[in-house]
Amino acid sequence: MIKQLSLVSAAALALSVFGTGAWADGEPAAAYAPAAERSCSSGPFAGPYIGAAIGGGKHDSEIHDRNPGSPTFGQSFDDDDSALTFGGYAGYNWQCGRWVFGVETDFNYFDASSTARVDTVSLKSEIDWYGTLRARAGVVLGDSTLLYATGGLAYSKIDHTFSDSLGPAGPFSQSDDDSAAGWTIGGGIERLHHSRWLLRAEAFYVDLGDETHTYVVDSTACGGGPCTAISKWEDDFWVARIGLTYKFGVREEVVPLK
User: Fold this and answer.
1) For residue range 58-92, what is the model confidence (pLDDT) as tens digits?
2) Among candidates 133, 186, 124, 136, which has minimal Cα distance to 155?
3) CB within 8 A of 131, min separation 6: which ones?
4) Total number of domains in the chain
5) Does residue 161 fall inside a structural domain?
6) Range of 18's domain?
């Protein structure tokens, strides 16, 4: 988590420095701020946009033993993994003076894998990708910096694998490949560059809820009947990333915010 917050802090500082002076064509950022009296369909941050982002994430998986016959019944085991994430996003903003409201969706690659081990048992959780559908709300600082909060739906594909190298019937392994849905919350900062391009730095937390799996092995070592193991899995992760956005729409007049 410290790495993610450090990345966002560094990116935010870079955006601040980047936006303090005039741009390459000699026009200051304030040249693209809207008139305060305009409708909520106008403003430098208003309208549709697309973008791409890259960053890092930290996946944490916690597994709870729910098998009444297990010597570790009621205990929890966890592991975490840091991984690269990148993807694309698209959204739409409405700007009312200094206030900005919007909706955004994204889809991202995230190759994270966490493994907990208990004696001969291995419990592995893998996330290949994730997506979100979020609301955004923020305030414009100065003339071209947006500070915002965001939150909404999160979804992902998760692969849970239970393996026992010395099971009662010999080595045993079972994988459950499931789609999971949960929620996300976070925030970030966005800086306008000309009337079309924006740079952003953001971080958010994703909770994908929990899933319970039952593992069954037929074996005479279990009194002639099936052996079972029950585990509850909980997956969540942090993401911190930077992004480049292209905004569609008409160029705003040269009227600074008041």
Assistant:
1) 999 888 887 776 666 667 788 888 999 999 999 99
2) 133
3) 105, 106, 107, 108, 154, 155, 156
4) 1
5) yes
6) 2-247
